[in-house]
């Protein structure tokens, strides 16, 4: 009997280990690597149904949305579903205090009302190809690393050029496994993308930054766009004559809902993961880089929040910037906690020990780990300075970025250049865009506070002269009045500079306090930080290539390439998790929870009255679950990361069941250390999306475009 139980238990364990899925897989390799596994977990399709070059497949419904998110086609008229936070910049750009679509939402009731978005594009993957041998074969072993890289770059360019010659397609080639392999992606990009619908932020961003990265969640994080093409269904710049695009495939929508254990897959464009980092690297991220960046953002957010609360204008101007700063601020906090709890440094040390043991006696691998350790020690100072440069002068002191745009016309020659009007016009346009979302008093307070932090945290060799010594006392003590002498703080003054460009203005700009501050910061970065950092980072990369090659060849494990913004498929199942002792979460949330969180006094949890009423009346229409409630969000064990926002969550028969938009806080470390017991992706249930479109917004005409599938009723 005991023996039998032991056998049952061991079968059980190996079965659950089998379904513990980590990884973001290359669609073209699913057939050889994953198909059997996926089918054993509940996939009813073949790998060819997911990715095919010859017939239409799920891949033809997936787009990279603007290069930073994912979207999917959900009708035969090119309707795209993505997240509210992915369309946020567009929704914001159409918003003003009078027409506040961020607050009120926007619904085009016909094609004519769909709003154009200059600069926004979506990209399909036409096909992918393993080009490793073309890129790497017969490289002379005597090449220096820099020569090797140059030769590789040359081959990549030649391959891309020959592929795209005489074609409307684009192509790019990316390294995988630190350059052990190379794949090419042939792409088709559409540029006329219109905004179709967005819920009010109180739905699309419900829970705000309080709930961001957290479970349980009740956010309707979606928005709708449409691809327009020319009359031959080809990509075209915006034109009134363009028509809705006819896709090769669109995702049908399942109305059946999800159960724990159901097979799920997420198809999209994950941005960046670093699963093969060494313990030295993780220690640096966890103990040095993350804490520094968290603190900088902490300070910036506090100040921005006060200014946004004090003025509606500033609230709208800074909404998108604030959300993006807050997002990774909170992610890093979660990541650090997760790494600590999972004992990630120890886990990576174990992997290093296994590597050392397995490669003992092999010359190629002998020095890899000690050399990596040495490089990480050496890079730390530069990495920290780089983080501070990126976080402070480069990203959060916006006046410096504007001033930086003037360098080419100020520094190019000692003579004042004959400026063509196009350059001046371009600068004017950039200045206008800059000032649209710029508030001077917010900028002054943020920049003053962050520069103090920069000075406090960094070695003085990275601190601009203007902030040091006696001069600094003058500058920093009277920061506001010193800075206010600048010509870069108001649109009028910048335009006046550009209108009168000549010798005099060049002199004026060179003496400008903001311009001086900018050139000193930039100078330090480009002379003291970047060159050193790049050399070491390139060496780390080359060493990592050997490390990963050794791991894959000699240490048993599951190896998948790190995310690099290329098309990937992750698969797993609907699952809940236990965040800590004594607490078990459910795998889904419902309308009841929306009402529980509802708080008109708190901007993060306010709700449109109409939504409250619909939920109170249980007026869910066909979007109710069979349990009678309105399901809102769910968790699953798909390995995802930033860039997977807006990715479809697809069931075993290829239908859309949800829209990925986040991960749980305990699991944000998955970019470095995936742990099946803690890492979950968070999605909005597709039925909640449709409920909002149809019942809340009365935009049922959009649901009519879609193909709903119900096997239950
Ligand atoms: N955390 C999600 C992602 O990484 C959602 C971010 C947008 N929401 C927000 N409250 N800032 O992008
Ligand atoms: N919200 C993320 C994004 O914008 C997705 C969540 C994640 O990082 O997994 O891509």
Quick summary of this structure?
With about 725 residues, this protein is an alpha+beta fold.
Q: Could you characterize what this model shows?
A:
The protein has 713 residues and is α+β, with helices and mostly antiparallel strands. It folds into 2 domains: 23-121 and 191-274 and 560-709, Thrombin, subunit H (Beta Barrel), CATH 2.40.10.120; 279-553, no CATH class. It is built from 28 helices and 20 strands. Strands 1, 2, 3, 4, 5, 6, 7, 8, 9, 10 and 11 form an 11-stranded antiparallel β-sheet that branches. The longest helix is centred in the C-terminal third of the chain and has 42 residues, at 513-554. Residues 6-19 have low confidence and may be disordered. The structure holds arginine and glutamic acid. Arginine binds at residues 85, 205, 208-209, 212-213, 323, 326-327, 642, 645, 661-662.
List the helices and strands and how they pair.
Elements: H1 2-19, H2 30-33, H3 35-41, H4 47-50, E1 62-65, E2 69-73, E3 79-82, H5 84-93, H6 101-104, E4 106-107, E5 115-116, E6 122-130, H7 132-136, H8 145-164, E7 170-176, E8 181-190, E9 192-198, H9 201-204, H10 208-211, E10 223-229, E11 243-244, E12 253-254, E13 263-268, H11 279-310, H12 312-341, H13 344-358, H14 363-366, H15 368-394, H16 398-404, H17 407-411, H18 421-436, H19 440-457, H20 469-477, H21 479-483, H22 491-499, H23 503-511, H24 513-554, E14 568-573, E15 588-590, H25 591-597, H26 609-616, E16 631-636, E17 648-650, E18 656-663, E19 681-685, H27 686-696, H28 700-705, E20 708-709
Parallel strand pairs: 12-20
Antiparallel strand pairs: 1-2, 1-6, 2-3, 3-10, 4-9, 5-9, 6-8, 7-8, 9-10, 10-11, 13-14, 13-17, 15-16, 16-19, 17-18, 18-19
Helix pairs in contact: 11-12, 11-13, 11-15, 11-19, 15-19, 15-24, 16-24, 18-22
This protein binds arginine and glutamic acid (GLU).
